[in-house]
Design brief:
single chain, alpha+beta, Tetrahydropterin Synthase, Chain A, 4-stranded antiparallel beta sheet, 3-stranded antiparallel beta sheet, 11% strand
Length: 503
């Protein structure tokens, strides 16, 4: 029988199997540690002085706000940030706020605020304040608080603001809190430093209260002094009564024991009566002085009250006068804006338009003057050319008539006779003529045979016409012979003697 023995190597296999198990266990532990560390990293805890804001895909609106707890922030789809809950102080330098009586009031205030932890308001803070710095949040809160304080002051009288500051602070806190909650803030405290007004009304009230307190203190002092003096007088009276009683008892005993001393007792009685009389006189004098002191105290109190009332009235009149002056300034500014400024603009427009028209007229006048000057220059040039041409023509005429200068003169005169006749006709065209002289040659013939007679008949009117215009005809045209006639005028039907015959 053959037996085969196969080595199993159980020890080696067991060691190899144990090593694989350990490695797998270590790997599993390592994976678990990594997962645990990742979960720890993703698990965000919120401190008590902060608000954890988880934004992204939260399933609760735009953001999830956690205060005093913890939550997982999943990567990629979510992110987180913190809002600081530390309070901050907002200084409010409120000046020139109008009260219900239109009095300017200055109320320097400090407001302590912080991000609210109320549900719903935290979401407002996450929406509006998450990316802002502390200074930017403070600036937003300052603007809101200023506006709300002005609105609250406008609904209250200055006496109410000054007298009941707790009510004023409560109204301010309520109004400011409502508006700050819209951006996620809560009001912690409102501290009003002081209240002042531009008109001095509050100072006048303070002076009035001080004067009243001083007057009351003076009255109280006078009352205490009077009470003390009355007590002293009463004690002195009781003492004197006791002494008098003792003296009387002694006197009675002495009178009983010693009859001889009756006179002395009587004297003592008289002294006692005198003492009592003096005491009563002193008491009456004290009472009179006490009444005088009381009257003086009342007089001083009344005088102080009148003085305080006078100061208050002066302050009220001053405030009213300043208010009227401010109203007058506002009315003056309004009139200036509504009347003066448009009038100035209209006046400037009219001035500019008149300047433009003036410049236009100046340019037109200059153009017309230049045109007239050019026209006159052209006319002068034309006249000069005409005169030059005439001068040349006259020179040629004189040269042509060099042998007979008289002929040149005659030709020039004949040239002007037509124009002279036209001017003369225009001159006498509308004149009433009483006498017409007709020159006739005396012949009835016509043609060339009577030409000489007609020419000779024309010469007298030519001479007369030349004399009328101040000209003298040449000698070859004849001369007019002057006849001395008698004073009697010849009949109108008789023609004058012929003039112009050659002598």
């Amino acid at each position: 029988m053959i037996v085969l023995q196969i080595p199993t190597h159980s020890g080696v296999s067991g060691e190899g199997g144990l090593s694989t198990t350990v490695i797998l266990a270590l790997l599993a532990a390592l994976v678990g540690i990594v997962v645990l560390l990742s979960l720890i990293r993703l698990y965000r805890r919120c401190p008590s002085n902060k608000i954890l804001v988880i934004y992204g895909k939260t399933g609760r609106g735009v953001a999830k706000c956690i205060h005093g707890g913890a939550a997982f922030v999943w990567p990629v789809i979510q992110a987180s940030s913190f809002l600081d809950l530390e309070p901050f102080v907002v200084p409010i330098d409120l000046t020139s706020a109008l009260s219900q009586e239109n009095i300017r009031v200055s109320v320097p205030t400090t407001v302590t605020a912080a991000i609210s932890t109320e549900p719903g308001i935290m979401e407002n803070a996450a929406i509006r304040l998450l990316a802002l710095t502390r200074q930017q949040i403070q600036n937003q809160a300052q603007d809101i608080i200023l506006g709300q304080m002005r609105a609250v002051i406008a609904t209250m009288k200055i006496d109410d603001i000054n007298r009941d500051r707790q009510a004023f602070m409560a109204k301010v806190s309520e109004a400011v809190a409502v508006e700050l909650e819209k951006i996620g803030l809560a009001v912690i405290n409102v501290n009003i430093k002081d209240i002042e007004d531009e008109s001095g009304y509050l100072k006048a009230l303070g002076r009035k209260a001080a004067a009243e307190a001083i007057n009351q203190a003076n009255i109280d002092v006078s009352e205490q002094e009077r009470t003390g003096q009355i007590g002293v007088a009463e004690r002195q009276r009781d003492q004197r009564k006791a002494v008098s009683a003792a003296n009387a008892a002694a006197i009675i005993g002495e009178q009983t024991a010693l009859r001889d001393q009756r006179q002395q007792v009587a004297n003592l009685d008289a002294q006692a009566v005198q003492t009592e009389t003096e005491a009563n006189a002193r008491k009456a004098a004290f009472n009179a002085s006490q009444h005088v002191a009381e009257a003086e105290a009342r007089s001083k109190a009344e005088s102080a009250a009148r003085s305080a009332d006078g100061q208050i009235r002066v302050a009220e009149q001053k405030a009213q006068r300043e208010a009227e002056e401010a109203k007058a300034l506002r009315e003056q500014s309004r009139l200036k804006a509504e009347v003066v400024v448009p009038a100035e603009a209209a006046r400037n427009q009219v001035v500019i338009q008149s300047d433009a028209e003036k410049q236009l007229k100046t340019l037109v006048a200059e153009g017309e003057a230049n045109a007239i000057l050019l026209k006159m220059k052209a006319e002068a040039e034309g006249i000069r050319l005409i005169l030059d041409a005439k001068a040349k023509g006259y020179g040629s005429l004189i040269q042509a008539a060099a042998q007979d200068p008289q002929a040149a003169t005659t030709l020039l005169v004949i040239e002007k006779l037509t124009e002279v006749a036209r001017i003369q006709a225009e001159a006498i065209k509308n004149l009433p003529l009483e006498k017409v002289i007709v020159w006739d040659s005396g012949g009835s013939g016509s043609g060339l045979s009577d030409l000489g007679k007609r020419l000779v008949g024309v010469l007298p009117p030519m001479h007369q016409l030349a004399n009328m215009v101040g000209l003298e005809l040449p000698d070859f045209l004849g001369k007019v012979k002057m006849h001395h006639e008698p004073p009697a005028a010849p009949p109108a039907s008789e023609p004058p003697p012929a003039a112009g015959k050659r002598g």
